[in-house]
Write a sequence for this structure.
């Protein structure tokens, strides 16, 4: 493959309206980090660029819901995501944000350049308008009934229940999320990029020039856009909003750049910021033909990175186009689509707290199960199985045995390499071939395949130790044992080099054990990374077994989420049959005070309460023992039906009924006045 003078690697800008989850990691951040780390090991000139996407309607919705400003929202999540990326080992050279002044300047310059070249179509269109709020409504500010499945809370761009793509005018009974009123259609002016003008260029560039090297899922989606019956359509590059980058032309007051116009330009502005901080020239990383530009994204962003952004770059002129856009499919969670709104996710910041020091376990599992060609599923059982059966039993076991045996038999010093036998020559030859095989897979963006080869490398080491049995030969042939452990240790050192792009924390532990540093990919495959007499540190624990209880806790956490989601969408209990006013006034409900409360012997459900009704004290047996402790009720004012006929229960007359509210989850809640009242106060 061609070696470029420099490499610009981008990862999709994460949206700053919530924390990161495993779907984000599997989609583009782990693959891009593997690629960047690999290129650095090859001593290539790399700029690995990302940043927070801080504009768009979802952020304003969240801000309004929380009663804070959009800036407050993006500040919170920008810092959270940046910290999570750092702790997880995503090795960006620069992580910026689209609210940065340099980004506003860069995106505005792009828009003005295209505007002055006459690339935009100015069109008057009709859009929903909230007369009460006095503003146009973005798609996500409109809610109504989905025409496909009947879900009553579908958004103006998508139904979350059935997954159908929608436009606001498709919705039945649309309502504004700002005021709750029915919006009206109103004329508004916007600037459209006429994508049809770029059809021939895009077809040639994507479907012909990259037919042999782009992933089939990317080519397929591009082809569906480019070869659709009605062809590419003009797409608005502006929006009626007050949060974002103001449209920099006259007559565009109250309008901002479409988030998918400005977000990809964030790669360029982030590169500018990085270059300025490091005394570099940013332009070669975007304008020199000897630069390889690679966009790592999820499949939902293919159209923006393969059609819209390249059209913008081509029209502006002077910029290189992406050499590849290795988009991944989606990762599901325990058989269900990951959803931030339903909290159905494994959040990265929570994982880092609950699994300290296990970044590489998640990196390994998400790469081994990466959705490179089709949607895949993450399960906690698979997570446990891959950790215990592969990382612990194969990778960690091999390195540990090599180091421990060396300490046991040779005082922790690398023993001498003696006469080689056929098994030694075979394993050294096989070792020498692994780096090129792994590199070939990485350079073709087949990271699952590359990681599988790394694990095969570790299996080879285990097999070698099993065949040579140094724990036996030490008794009869110490020189033979020395040769075996010299080779085994060098396999482990090589394993650290080729595993570093995938398991950087683990690689560092191995380097530290062997007192190695500064190794590059060209060192991989060599049999003399560790020389006779080199002193080893004690074996470090690379991986540890994950117990069933740990996995069960995570599964239960998800089941609790599913239960909560079901409760929130569950309908209220149906209304009982109608009664007359005369029936109602027969009920004598009053506020009473609980004086004493104690468990009923031989009953799990009943508490014996003494209450002050204002008319005297009464004894009531209440079936609330599974919901309240006796001491939590004493002194409380509650609602009681006092004219219910006494009922004998477990030998005691219960003289009334304490009224409770039953929540959707079956839990009981007290009914209480918001301020204290005299015992016996009537309810009417």
């Amino acid at each position: 493959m061609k070696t470029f003078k420099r490499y610009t690697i981008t990862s999709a800008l994460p949206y700053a309206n919530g924390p990161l989850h495993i779907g984000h990691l599997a989609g583009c951040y782990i693959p891009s980090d593997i690629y960047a780390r690999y290129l650095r090991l090859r001593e290539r000139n790399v700029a690995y660029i990302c940043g927070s996407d801080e504009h768009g309607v979802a952020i304003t919705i969240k801000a309004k819901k929380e009663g804070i400003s959009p800036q407050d929202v993006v500040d919170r999540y920008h810092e959270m995501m940046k910290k999570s990326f750092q702790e997880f080992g995503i090795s960006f050279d620069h992580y910026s944000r689209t609210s940065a002044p340099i980004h506003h300047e860069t995106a505005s310059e792009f828009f003005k350049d295209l505007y002055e070249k006459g690339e935009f179509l100015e069109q008057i269109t009709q859009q929903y308008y909230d007369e009460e709020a006095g503003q146009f409504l973005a798609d996500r500010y409109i809610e109504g009934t989905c025409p496909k499945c009947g879900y009553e809370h579908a958004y103006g761009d998508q139904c979350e229940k059935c997954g159908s793509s929608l436009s606001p005018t498709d919705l039945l009974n649309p309502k504004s999320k700002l005021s709750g009123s029915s919006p009206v259609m109103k004329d508004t002016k916007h600037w459209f990029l006429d994508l049809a003008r770029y059809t021939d260029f895009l077809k040639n560039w994507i479907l012909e020039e990259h037919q042999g090297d782009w992933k089939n899922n990317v080519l397929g989606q591009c082809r569906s856009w480019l070869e659709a019956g009605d062809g590419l359509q003009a797409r608005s590059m502006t929006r009626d909003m007050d949060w974002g980058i103001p449209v920099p032309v006259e007559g565009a007051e109250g309008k901002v750049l479409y988030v998918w116009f400005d977000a990809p330009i964030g790669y360029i502005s982030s590169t500018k910021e990085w270059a300025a901080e490091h005394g570099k020239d940013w332009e070669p990383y975007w304008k020199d033909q000897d630069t390889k530009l690679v966009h790592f994204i999820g499949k939902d962003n293919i159209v923006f990175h393969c059609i819209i952004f390249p059209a913008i770059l081509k029209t502006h002129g002077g910029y290189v186009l992406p050499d590849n856009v290795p988009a991944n499919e989606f990762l599901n969670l325990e058989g269900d689509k990951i959803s931030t709104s339903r909290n159905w996710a494994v959040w990265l910041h929570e994982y880092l707290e609950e699994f300290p020091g296990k970044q590489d376990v998640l990196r390994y599992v998400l790469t081994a199960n990466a959705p490179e060609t089709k949607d895949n599923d993450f399960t906690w059982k698979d997570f446990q199985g891959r950790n215990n059966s592969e990382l612990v039993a194969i990778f960690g076991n091999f390195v540990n045995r090599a180091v421990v045996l060396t300490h046991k038999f040779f005082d922790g010093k690398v023993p001498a390499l003696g006469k080689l036998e056929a098994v030694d020559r075979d394993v050294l030859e096989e070792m020498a071939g692994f780096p090129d095989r792994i590199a070939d897979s990485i350079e073709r963006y087949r990271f699952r395949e590359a990681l599988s080869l790394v694990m095969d490398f570790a299996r080879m080491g285990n097999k070698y130790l099993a065949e040579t049995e140094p724990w036996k030969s030490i008794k009869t042939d110490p020189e033979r044992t020395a040769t075996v452990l010299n080779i085994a240790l060098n396999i482990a050192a090589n394993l650290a080099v080729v595993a570093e792009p995938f398991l950087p924390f683990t690689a560092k532990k191995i380097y530290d054990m062997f007192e190695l540093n500064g190794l590059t990919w060209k060192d991989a495959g060599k049999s003399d990374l560790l020389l006779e007499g080199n002193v080893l540190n004690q074996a470090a624990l690379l991986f540890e077994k994950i117990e069933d209880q740990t996995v069960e806790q995570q599964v239960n956490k998800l089941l609790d989420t599913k239960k909560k989601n079901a409760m929130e969408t569950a309908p209220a209990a149906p209304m009982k049959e109608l009664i007359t006013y005369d029936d109602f006034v027969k009920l004598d409900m009053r506020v009473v005070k609980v004086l004493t409360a104690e468990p009923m012997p031989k009953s799990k459900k009943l508490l014996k309460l003494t209450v002050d009704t204002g008319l005297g004290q009464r004894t009531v047996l209440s079936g609330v023992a599974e919901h309240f402790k006796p001491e939590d009720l004493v002194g409380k004012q509650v609602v009681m039906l006092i004219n219910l006929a006494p009922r004998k229960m477990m030998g005691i007359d219960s003289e009334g009924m304490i009224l409770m509210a039953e929540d959707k989850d079956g839990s009981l809640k007290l009914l209480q006045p918001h301020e204290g009242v005299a015992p016996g106060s009537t309810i009417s």
